[in-house]
Design brief:
637 residues; alpha/beta; six-stranded parallel β-sheet; 21 strands; 36% helix; binds thiamine diphosphate; binds magnesium ion
Length: 637
């Protein structure tokens, strides 16, 4: 077999196993062919398809970055237990995957990347698209994938392939290490034949571990929580990937500790659970942010504490606040100088609940959580039903989509003003019902990622909410959805530019400069002419999808219902008022404002900025001291 044929045969024999359940680790391949992979992997995929079209289906994509997004959407929906492989040519095909790889690694989601690479033999150098590095001949553009991958190998010789394949699968299935795994395959090596050991192709099951907490660490964590008067749980993506929602609910109910959710953790509890405070941080709810403000012990579960979660370290204002971090990744447990609990989220929550048996917050604390959450829900209801005319507010669009979506349906988004609005406003009723990519917040993830979500969960409807800016950056995977008969419900929100960055620009005193899609006015030389005559509905239609043009919230609802009933991709287009913001949540995000400026608005913004900066806290205080050990150590008695 050639190296490429061996890769394909190996991938078809890999399984993951968690909680006694086994599934294919990589059930399909996405790709775009060029001279760097068409003869090697392309030929191997053809042979495999002719043998059995269902063993490792090949799905051609339209853009290499987008196909990595699709693999990421798939992997996240499958709680990291399965993913897709992505094959690209060399040069631009490979470097197009860099953004996708970074997104995967930042979000700790597994994807297998198989970029083609320059000739190992170098006989015909430089091959088309080869970057020549005059003083380092073993460097290729694929080295840009190294810092954004959790595993990287280049197979210069066939003998190196087995170690690369096993190394990649190990990283993909390790919850603490996972991210993009890249195996660069020089185009001549792909086509080279080799006599492989049979056992390379034996069925292989990769056990996905649920590490249990170390007893001493558990005791330390429980002791800190027992001392708390105002504890708060911050639930991150790890809760969902570890399928720990039920364990979280039981832990919260047993201890009476309310739960705030990060973007990746939203859906950990249903929105109407009596201990659910909703979104945490800069795009949070007033309920979660008020509890965070006063919390004395914050229990972070499966969170990496991004600046949106900590409101750039202004969210926690209790002078004695301490953190207990439960995470499968040791580096995350150590953040904010926490008491560390390295473990799987589910295993850790169950162990903590047992260690805290009999301990609970007072009823008044739970009542307060319920009150504040109810207050926020009234705010949500008002935002859903503003009745703005002639153009509706984005919050009304979110309300209509939330009404039409069933509890198990999935909302997908990534960049713009929508992720923040969804974090605050979406009523999530299922742990897999909310899929906002906010680790990399990558414009263009929406449609490509939504495609992966639907491939992973064909029994759910997928609502992709996408802004005009994101749509213009990357919408071509609509064609892939049509090709694969994958049904998406896409809501395209047209507000003629970057409403999010426009609002941010205004808040930093930069007057929405360069953030709306307008003609350049020849008399002023500035982009303040009429809005550009783009018709994105017509654009989507031209790609082969069914389009419904909604003009108000009522026709949007009707369109969404029609889309729900359809069995093909439907895009509903609606124009919104870019100047109506979602309700405020008494929070902040650190975006530095010019220290000196000739513009008044910037100077005013800087004064505001300096005020907020004073609320920023280092959060470095060491964990509370432990009772002295009774055996050995430095006991003086
Ligand atoms: C690839 C990429 N480039 C730039 C950004 C910075 N950015 C964040 S939101 C945004 C504008 C998004 O516009 P649109 O999709 O229309 O959403 P809106 O802001 O109007 O809600 C930009 C440029 C980004 N997140 N991703
Ligand atoms: Mg926009």
């Amino acid at each position: 077999m050639t190296v490429a044929q061996a890769v394909i045969r190996y991938l078809a024999a890999q399984y993951s196993e968690a909680d006694g359940e086994r599934r294919r680790l990589i059930p399909a391949t996405l790709g775009i062919f060029g001279h760097g992979n068409v003869a090697g992997l392309g030929q191997a995929l053809l042979e495999a398809e002719r043998d059995d079209p269902h063993r490792l289906p090949y799905r051609p994509a339209r853009n290499e970055q987008a196909m990595v997004h699709t693999a990421v959407g798939f992997a996240r929906m499958r709680n990291r237990l399965s993913t897709l492989a992505c094959t690209s040519s060399i040069g631009p095909g490979a470097t197009n995957m860099v953004t996708g790889a970074a997104l995967a690694t930042i979000n700790r989601l597994p994807v297998l990347l198989l970029p083609g690479d320059v000739f190992a033999t170098r006989v015909a150098d430089p091959v088309l698209q080869q970057l020549e590095h005059p003083s380092s001949h073993d460097v290729s553009v694929n080295d840009t994938l190294r810092p954004v991958s959790r595993f990287f190998d280049r197979v210069w010789r066939p003998e190196q392939l087995p170690a690369a394949l096993l190394g990649a699968a190990r990283v993909l299935t390790d919850p603490a290490e996972t991210g993009a795994a890249t195996i660069a395959l020089p185009q001549d090596v792909q086509a080279e034949a080799y006599d492989w050991p049979d056992e390379l192709f034996a069925r292989r099951v990769w056990h996905v571990p649920r590490p249990a907490p170390e007893p001493a660490a558990l005791a330390r964590a429980a002791a800190v929580i027992r001392g708390a008067e105002r504890p708060l749980i911050v639930a991150g993506g790890g809760v969902i990937y570890s399928e720990a929602s039920a364990a979280l609910r039981e832990f919260a109910e047993a201890t009476g500790i309310p739960v705030a959710e990060t973007q990746a953790g939203k859906g950990s509890l249903p929105f109407d659970h009596p201990l659910a405070l909703g979104a945490m941080g800069s795009t949070g709810t007033t309920a979660a942010n008020r509890f965070a403000h006063e919390a004395d012990v914050v229990i972070g579960v499966g969170t990496r504490y991004s600046d949106f979660t900590t409101a750039s370290r202004t969210a926690f204002q209790n002078p004695g606040v301490r953190f207990v971090n439960l995470n499968v990744t040791a580096a995350d447990t150590a953040k904010l100088a926490a008491t560390t609990l390295v473990a799987d989220a589910r295993a850790g929550l169950i162990a903590l609940r047992d260690s805290l048996a009999g301990w609970s917050t007072p009823a008044s604390y739970r009542d307060r959580a319920r009150e504040l959450a109810a207050e926020w829900d009234a705010t949500v209801q008002a935002a859903y039903t503003l009745g703005r005319a002639p153009l509706p507010a984005q919050s009304e669009v979110i309300g209509a989509a939330n009404d039409v979506a069933e509890p198990r349906d999935v909302v997908v988004c990534a960049a713009g003003s929508m992720p923040g609005d969804l974090h605050k406003l979406w009523r999530t009723r299922d742990p897999k019902g909310y899929h906002v990519e906010y680790g990399y917040s990558c414009m263009g993830y929406e449609i490509a990622g939504g495609l992966g979500v639907k491939l992973a969960a064909p029994d759910r409807d997928v609502f992709v909410l996408v802004g005009d800016g994101s749509y213009l950056m990357m919408s071509q995977e609509l064609v892939t959805a049509v090709q694969e008969s994958v049904k998406l419900i896409i809501v395209l929100v047209q507000n003629h530019g970057f409403q999010s960055i426009g609002a941010l620009s205004e808040s930093v005193g930069a007057q929405r400069f360069g953030t709306s899609y307008r003609h350049r006015d020849p008399s002023t030389g500035r982009l303040d002419g009429p809005v550009l005559p783009v018709d994105l509905a017509a654009n989507a239609e031209s790609l082969g999808v069914r389009v419904i043009r909604a003009h108000d919230i009522e026709s949007l609802r009707a369109g969404l219902r029609e889309a729900k009933a359809a069995d093909e991709t439907v895009l509903v287009h609606i124009e919104t008022d870019p100047l109506v913001a979602a309700p405020d949540s008494e929070s902040w995000w650190d975006v530095p404002v010019s220290e000196v400026a000739t513009i008044d608005t910037t100077r005013q913004a800087r004064t505001e900025y300096d005020k907020h900066k004073q609320d920023q806290r280092p959060l470095l205080a060491p964990p509370p001291t432990q009772p002295p050990s009774t055996s050995g150590g430095f006991s003086t008695s």
